[in-house]
Every structure is written in C-alpha cells, then in structure tokens.
C-alpha cells in the first residue's frame, strides 16, 4: 500500500490523506455520538469553501481506503457526501433477507449510484439526506 502511495502525484497524496482523515473522523464520531448529535456535528463540519476534487478520484480513493481499513458503507458514503455535499443524496435503506435484517448506505447523484452499489440486494430506502 505504501509503495502505491509513494507512486502517486503530490495532489493525489493530499487527496488521499484528506479522505483518510475525514473518513476516520466520521467513523470515530459515529461510534461515540448518538445519530441525532452526529447529524448536527456533521452538518456543522461541512466545509464552506470547497476545493474542487475530481469526483472519480474521490470515489476510487474512498473505496480503496475504506476497504483496506474495513470501514462499512456508512462512513464511506458520508465521506463522499462530505466532499460533494449539495450535489448528492445519501440514502439509507433496509431489507430483510433470510430472517436477517440488514441496512445499507449509498450515495447517488441524479439517480446514479456513485458509491455503495449493491447489485444483488434490494434495499428499501427509509431515509434520504440531501
């Protein structure tokens, strides 16, 4: 992993580090705050002036870092929403499969899923964060 990191450009390293720190912070805050307080913290932490970051690069690094650090779909989706904010919707859905209740989070833009695709599952959306 470090070998790949040192092989990318300076701007990509900065992007990867920003994603890593933001996703880790989101993961930590999800663990210690009740969700109602998390939403307040998250909303207040959104950047006022955003640097433009290539959307495909964001998605690639969020998926890569998230999978390597074993982050679930929710921290990954919240991280993408953080960087793209008003351009996207974060959706949380549920399903019951084989007597097991499951939840899933994904981000979509104009009905296209950007992160959190689950091709074999059919989650019923219960909450959307615009």
UniProtKB/TrEMBL annotation:
A Pfam entry, by short name: Transglut_core3
All residue ranges annotated as the Microcin J25-processing protein McjB C-terminal domain in the record: 69-128
Domain of life: Bacteria
Protein name: Lasso peptide biosynthesis B2 protein
